[in-house]
Every structure is written in structure tokens, then in C-alpha cells.
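Here is this case:
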Amino acid sequence: MSALTEISSNKIFGGFHKVFSHESKFLGCVSKFGVYLPPQAEEKKLPVIYWLSGLTCSEANFIEKSGAQKYAAEHGVIIVNPDTSPRNLNIAGDSDSWDFGVGAGFYVDAIQAPWKNNYKMYSYITSELIQIIHDNFPILTGKQSIMGHSMGGHGALICALKNPGLYKSVSAFAPICNPSECPWGIKAFTGYLGPKESGEWANWDATELIKTYNGPPLELFIDQGSEDNFLHAKQLLPENLIEACKTHHMPVIYKKREGYNHSYFYIASFIDEHISYHVQHLQK
């Protein structure tokens, strides 16, 4: 069983929102995650939803700001919110900009120096973290889903697409859908994966992964605010992912939310719908 250090614990909606730290073998540093344990967790094992946050967010931001605890308590589901990147490594350049390094691990496994030894968020999320949660909390084995926002929406999509059957469902708020073609993604992929000519980028791009997906049926639930500045700035490119889904017969739900932007106000407005969606799949 992985050794966890409890950093904080607060009772809310009959359950507990806790933050833990642990030594990560994949990241080579102390990593933190937030977890909401609904009141039902005191009596039985429950399914779990993993939430991946966006640029610059911390391990507790989503659970604290989105109101997710209320709906998790109503549905009897655990929510886990890991950090977005390795922390306190002091790698040269890791804090020079908000959209790369400490603020943005992009949920890939880096292969370029100096990032390749620690920036392995993909493997951390899909392997190490799952085992830690299974070993330390009352989890129903195999009953897990994944969702996220912005960069975390990209992370949720690629984790599901690269691991057929690992997650029962996947959803994303305003995800970076085609990072190979947007400024955020080009910057991150160049730094972590090398030049596009290396051929690595397609392995970490949801729009490209749809084209080669070979696994059990998987439906993508994409949520997007119409007044999202990053949508208009061509950072998110949902239209490219939707077109790939149509061409390659990947089921997709695309909900355009009129008047909503990229913020937690938007997420909080529709998080219940997403949690309900995942619970339906987790109960099958």
C-alpha cells in the first residue's frame, strides 16, 4: 500500500474533501491529489471519477470551485483530482511561462531532455495513481471514468483513447481537442516530444487517436461554451475532433452552451450533468 500523507480534511455534504501527498515513482517528486469521499464510502465500495484540471490549476481547485461534492454525494461516487504536473523539481525553464512546465504538464510522457525523467503525467494518471487510489480507498475495481477541463479535457480524452476499456466513460469541458494544430499544443509538444517531424505528436492528440482507435465502443462527451475566448482564438478546435469522429464512426455528444465562457462558472453550471452521465456508465 502506498504511503500517503494527509494534508487537509474538510467535511462537506456528509462526506470529506481531503488532500493527500505521496512520493511518486513516475514523477520523481512529492505529488498531491484531492479526493472527495461521499458519505456512502463509509459503508461500501464505490466507483470513481478522475478529474484532470487545466492549465495552472492545483490538485484541489476543481473539487473546491465546481460544486462537484454535492453531486458526488447525491450519486455516491468518489472524485479524484490529481495535480497537473510534477512540482518542486526546479528544472531550468519549468516556471518561465504559465502554459509550459510546472503550470502545464499536458498529460503526456515527455521524451525530450530535461523533461523526460519526470514529466510522465500520462503514466502517472493511467497507472500509478489508479493503483494508489485502489490501495487506499474503498473503490470498486474496474469502475472508473475520467473527465477534465481544457488541457485536462485533452488529458481525459487521450487517456481514454489510448487505453481501450480502462475507463467506462469520458467527458471533457472545453478540451484542447487537436493540440498538434493549436499554439498551446505546439509549444508543449515541441518541448516535451520534440519536433512534429518526429512522428510522436499524433500519439498524444485526441483528434489523431480517434483515427486509429481499436477497442470496445467508446462515446466521447464534449462540452463547449460559445463565448469561450480560447475557442475563438483557435486553441481548442472542437470542430476538428467532431469531424474525425464523423469520418471514423466514433460516437460523440457535442453540447454547445450558449453564452458560457472557459471559467469555473461554466463548469459548475453543468458538472451535475457530467457526473450523472458517468454514473450511468459506471452502473452498467
The first strand starts at residue 5 and ends at 12. DSSP finds nine helices and nine strands in the chain. Strands lie at 5-12, 15-24, 29-37, 46-52, 78-82, 139-149, 170-173, 220-225, 252-257. The CA atoms of residues 11 and 17 lie 6 Å apart.
